[in-house]
Amino acid sequence: MRPAQILRLPAFLVLLAIAIGLSACAGSSQPPQEAAPAPEAAPTAAGPVILPPPAPAATVPAPGAAPIPPLVSMPPSAGPAPALLESRRLTLEFPHKIRVGDSDVLRLTLEVDELGGMTPTAEIAGHTVTGETVQIPDLYETHTVIAESRLDLAGMLIEPSETQSDQLLPGRPVTFRWSLHPSDVGTYRGVVHLSLRFVPLTGGAESRQTLSSQVVEIQAVKFLGLSGGPARIAGMLGSGLATVLGFPFLEDILRWFWRRMRRAA
């Protein structure tokens, strides 16, 4: 194109041609960009891939149902169940008064409690009777159960004075007796002890259990200052005199004798 013709072109075409020429020059001046290297592939394991087990799915209760409690591991048992208990009635009978020179009996009985209640304190023929319910381990199949009792009563002669023992069998009572002989007037206080001894049938160490320790109080007295023997003789004479005085025809007999004596005089 000739210069004269270029001058006759519109101005916007001239500006467009200049802009295209500048952009072409800028693109040719920048160095070519290198392609980014491809990422290396992860090494493949020789063996099979083991995935972790999936977590257990949570149990969702149905609408309106009670929530499911979590599982709790129970601890192991601490030991065998305790032995059963046998209910027995313990009865103590003793005199509250004894004449000096006389004797009486103190009695302790351990029997099966069929009623399941306590025996109230009572007085029968001058004797005080007390009762209580005790619980005994039922170990008759594995142990020999021995009942032992002792009476501590200072100042009074008691027979036997040593500890008494007897084997305790299921459903059978055991009774201990002591003979009491006071030698002087006074109040005597003592204690009646009762315990159980468990002897294993297969051998081994014995064990012991205290069941009861009961306090007793006994008074030794004299009748008109007399001991037992003279007091009994005086009582017999008084009883005979009362019988004679109570005879219905005694007054008539005395009058007849009085008349005979006056006539003889």
Write the layout of secondary structure elements.
Blueprint: H1 3-7, H2 11-29, E1 85-95, E2 97-99, E3 104-112, E4 122-124, E5 127-137, E6 143-153, E7 157-159, E8 164-167, E9 174-181, E10 186-200, E11 207-221, H3 228-245, H4 250-264
Parallel strand pairs: 2-11
Antiparallel strand pairs: 1-3, 1-5, 3-9, 4-5, 6-8, 6-10, 7-9, 10-11
Structural description of this entry:
This protein has 265 residues and is α+β, with helices and mostly antiparallel strands. It has a domain at 85-221: Immunoglobulin-like (Sandwich). It has helices at residues 3-7, 11-29, 228-245, 250-264; strands at residues 85-95, 97-99, 104-112, 122-124, 127-137, 143-153, 157-159, 164-167, 174-181, 186-200, 207-221. The strands form two sheets. A six-stranded antiparallel β-sheet has the order 4-5-1-3-9-7, with no helix packed on it. It has a five-stranded mixed β-sheet with strand order 2-11-10-6-8, with no helix packed on it. The termini are far apart. The relative contact order is 0.12. The model is unreliable at 41-49 and 65-82 (pLDDT under 50).
